[in-house]
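Input (structure):
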């Protein structure tokens, strides 16, 4: 495992930096084309939304349910509203 990391650091990172590549979608677009970049971006967005966000909402709601005694549905709504308001507030 350590050996692979050093190979990447020694050989690939300097090449990426010389070409100005800093993200995976940018690399895929340069190596293949815009369609591959778009497919990868849509795939990871879907994974983030349907796996990460749902598990975060569910586990956060379980905590709210245990601490405050709120029903599961109301906990999801409350957590989603708080996260949405906070995100909009921080973006403005």
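Output (sequence):
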């Amino acid at each position: 495992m350590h050996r692979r990391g050093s190979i990447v650091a020694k050989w690939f990172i300097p090449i990426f930096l010389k070409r100005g590549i800093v993200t995976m979608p940018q690399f895929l677009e340069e190596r293949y084309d815009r369609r591959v970049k778009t497919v990868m971006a849509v795939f990871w967005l879907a994974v983030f939304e349907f796996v990460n966000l749902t598990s975060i909402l569910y586990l956060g709601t379980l905590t709210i349910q245990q601490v405050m005694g709120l029903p599961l549905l109301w906990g999801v709504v409350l957590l989603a509203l708080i996260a949405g308001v906070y995100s909009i507030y921080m973006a403005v």
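Notes: The first helix runs from residue 2 to 19. Residues 68 and 75 are 9 Å apart (CA to CA).
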